[in-house]
Write a structure and sequence with these properties.
Rossmann fold, alpha/beta
Length: about 280
């Protein structure tokens, strides 16, 4: 895998140049083409389980990332907490664990039993006093937020001086995950190839799940600008963008449609992770 990754890194400048000199396809592809590509690129088996044991294990793994950010009992707030199992592992270590989500219908009973507090609210209006929280974190949520800018502003507001924010999200709208449609249609970069109307017609025709989650239209460059703008108050301690280069052959094949994306990086950067410390 290291050798393959090295080879793909060497290929990246050439694929980027091809992207830059290719003209945008004048029209999106149609329903018949979608049917053909869907047979060529079937939906892959899920690698993300929601079984109780998997939820607990994932919660412990994610909690292990943010727990070292404090040395004594503190206040942890998770944005987009969903089942609350990350906070369960945090509460079990003696911290005050608070979940923030606009939906509270999927709370795991184990989280309530551990003492996790749940607040149903918009992340752009956190109901905490200024500088009252030690750690704010978020997993797999920022790509779904209607207003990441206002949310990050609230994070900066409620953090204590010296407090930390950890953000980890993947599946941005223009990447191969296709705005999180990959669970129903396996075609990479589907949002660049087909209109939403065509995709909806296909999944309805096939009887596939069509309750796709909202994914904002932010390309990765817009997140970079956001984080840079807050650098006077939020020191960047760690930042990483993970690129998926394994689909270069697909991009070369459909580059005229891929060119519809805001940028080459918006196709390639599949995950963003950042750790920030309030100055």
């Amino acid at each position: 895998m290291r050798v393959i990754d090295w080879i793909l890194r060497l290929q990246e400048p050439g694929v980027r140049r091809l992207y830059e000199r290719t003209r945008v396809a004048p029209e999106y592809m149609g329903l018949d083409e979608l049917r053909v590509l869907a047979r060529e690129f079937p939906v892959l088996p899920p690698d993300y389980s929601y079984e109780p044991s998997a939820l607990a294990r994932r919660g412990e793994e994610r909690a292990a990332i943010v727990l070292p950010l404090v040395s004594s009992p503190g206040v942890f707030v998770e944005i987009g907490a969903r089942d609350g199992m990350v906070l369960t592992a945090i509460a079990e270590q003696g911290h005050l664990a608070i979940a923030v989500d606009i939906e509270v219908g999927v709370i795991d009973p184990r989280a309530r039993a551990a003492g996790v507090r749940f607040i149903q609210t918009d992340a752009t209006r956190l109901c905490f006093p200024d500088e009252s929280v030690d750690v704010v974190y978020s997993f797999a949520t920022f790509e779904h937020l209607p207003d990441p800018d206002a949310t990050f502003a609230e994070i900066a507001r409620v953090l204590k001086k010296g407090g930390h924010a950890y953000i980890d999200f993947a599946g941005l709208g223009w990447t191969h995950r296709g705005a999180h449609m990959y669970k129903s249609v396996g075609i990479p970069f589907i949002t660049a190839l087909f209109t939403r109307e065509t995709i909806d017609r296909y999944v309805t025709e096939q009887g596939l799940p069509n309750d796709f989650p909202h994914v904002n239209d932010w390309p990765v460059e817009r997140f970079r600008v956001l984080f840079d703008r807050y650098s006077p108050t939020m020191e960047r301690r760690f930042y990483r963008e993970t690129k998926d280069r394994f689909r270069f052959p697909f991009l070369r094949r459909f580059m005229a449609h891929a060119r519809r994306s805001p940028s080459f990086d918006s196709l390639l950067v599949d995950q963003v992770q950042g750790l920030f410390r309030k100055r």
